[in-house]
Every structure is written in C-alpha cells, then in structure tokens.
Amino acid sequence: MANPHRGEIEAELAGQRYTLCLTLGALAEIEHAYGGEDLIAIAERFERGKIGARDAIRLIGAGLRGAGHPVSDEDVAAMAVTGGAAGYLDIVIRLLKATFAAPGAG
Fold first, then answer.
1. Nearby residues of 6 by Cβ (< 8 Å), 6 or more positions away
2. How far from 65 is each of 18, 20, 25, 54, CA to CA, in Å?
3. Domain extents for the chain?
C-alpha cells in the first residue's frame, strides 16, 4: 500500500497494482535523462503543460524503479493503462504532486 507521507502513489499498469515513488535516486535519474537540467527547470517545464509520451514513460519508469520495481523504460512503454493517454497523464500528475506538494497540502 502506498504511503502518501513518503511521496508514494498507487497505480494500475498492465492490469497490476504498483507503488510508485520518486526517490532522490529516481529524481537524479530524471535529471540525467534531461541532460543534467535541474529539478526546478524540469518541474517548470511540466507546470507549463509540456508533458509528452516520452516524459510520461521516463517519470513512470523512474517512479516504479524508485519504489523497487525492476522495470525498464521499454517495459513501461508496453504497459497499458485504463483510460489511455489520460490514464498515463493522471499517473504522472499524481506522482509529481505527491513528490513536490508542500507537506499538509491537499
């Protein structure tokens, strides 16, 4: 079960429930994927609504690996989600909110 106090969320991917968490290591992985951009620049990009399919794969993959699931981005790209593109975006948005929301914010 996901612990929201640790920035964890639950999501169903390919018919299976997973916990996702953007740990410090997962955040470093994301920075590396974006050519060393810092987290503020990456977050600002996403806040402007600039989230593509590749971004979703990277974020969901990093969140899964951060929670201990040994999956590759290629594995994530092949996982179906209920709701199609909107379902993937929902996971990404919930994961980013869980990671970056101020304590006590809803």
1. 21
2. 11, 8, 9, 16
3. 4-99
Write out the H or E segment, with its range, that includes residue 19: strand 16-21
pLDDT band, very low/low/confident/very high, at 14 (cuts 50, 70, 90): very high
Q: 48 near 7, Cβ under 8 Å? A: no
Q: Is 9 exposed, middle or buried (0-12, 13-18, 19+ CB in 10 A)?
A: buried
What span, in angstroms and rounded, lies between the C-alpha atoms of 3 and 9? 7
pLDDT band per the 50, 70, 90 thresholds, residue 82 = very high
Task: Compute CA distances 16 → 19, 65, 82, 89, 95, whole Å.
Answer: 10, 15, 11, 18, 17
